[in-house]
């Protein structure tokens, strides 16, 4: 990785506020976007794979809020990779933005980006179907109690988003073996 750009450093250090915590998330986006020079710098940051993943994720969030057509300049593939890797590496640091998934039919504010990316997100998410590592944990009193009780793994998040993109009805199963069976069936369907 190269030396982070000044904007990347500021985003990682949350100079303008925390992302994915409200109202700080919205306030940070507004403050970043008010600086005209950041408009092009955010695009450059998304395109530069040598920059910190957290900064690139936050840059995407600003651009999704302020310039929905940014992917015409960056391409969808780098954006899909940023979100996929951010999920796998728990870059956000908690699960709430990824949604409450199955029984709650909640894609989350970060997870909905996979739906916006559609088919472009499928290869990266498919690769995560083999990642049985524990997923990020939920924050908040009620949210943590409910969300953490599901014991979602990275593959469970990936399966949910793939099902949503492909229009497949996937169910939550308490037993890991049943979830694994559904994931194996999903892999077969995706390979068709």
Q: Can you put this structure into words, describing what you see?
A:
With 192 residues, this protein is mostly helical. The protein folds into two domains: 74 residues, no CATH class; 118 residues, no CATH class. The protein has twelve helices and no strands. The longest helix has 16 residues. The chain is globular, with a radius of gyration of 17 Å. It starts with 5 loop residues before the first helix and ends with a helix. The mean pLDDT is 94.
The N- to C-terminal Cα distance equals 37 Å
Average pLDDT, to the nearest integer? 94
Biggest sheet layout = none
Uncertain spans, ≥5 residues at pLDDT below 50? none
Number of helical stretches of at least 4 residues: 12
Write a compact overview of the structure shown.
The chain is 59% helix and 0% strand. It is an all-alpha fold and 192 residues long. Helix 2 (24-34) packs across helix 4, helix 4 (53-66) crosses helix 6 and helix 9 packs antiparallel against helix 11.
Provide the fold topology.
Layout: H1 6-12, H2 24-34, H3 37-47, H4 53-66, H5 71-74, H6 76-88, H7 101-104, H8 112-117, H9 122-128, H10 141-148, H11 154-166, H12 176-191
Helix pairs in contact: 1-4, 2-4, 3-4, 4-6, 9-11
Descriptive tags:
192 residues, 12 helices, mainly alpha
